[in-house]
Amino acid sequence: MPEKNPDLKRRQGRKKQHATILTSTPIKDALVDKENKKKAKAEKRKGKEVVKKSKILKDNIKKVKKKILQECTIYIRYFDVRREHG
To answer: Which residue stretches does the UniProt record annotate as biased composition, category Basic and acidic residues (predicted)?
Structure first.
């Protein structure tokens, strides 16, 4: 039997480090506001992704079920016709 190839691990680069201003200056206030906006935007995006994924999955399930049912009816009809003819 063929042996399974070992999983190749990808290198992950270091995350960039960003310096921040720790004193109370107008620039620090702007940085804090910017960071808060970024977090709020990320939270909004999280909720939307979950809704989209579940909607896509439900649509796919309906399509798959419909296709399976159609295939089953074709199969059943085929054997019904064969029984009638002998």
So the answer is: 1-10
- Beta carbons within 8 Å of 13's beta carbon, 6+ residues apart: none
> Per-residue pLDDT for the chain (86 aa), expressed as one digit of tens each?
778 777 777 777 888 877 766 677 777 888 888 899 999 988 888 766 555 555 556 666 666 666 676 666 666 666 666 666 65
The residues near 21 (Cβ < 8 Å, ≥ 6 apart) are 27, 28, 31
For the entire predicted model, the pTM comes to: 0.32
Which residue type sits at 51?
V
Pull the structure tokens for residue 42.
């990320």
Contacts (Cβ under 8 Å, ≥6 apart) of 20: 28, 31
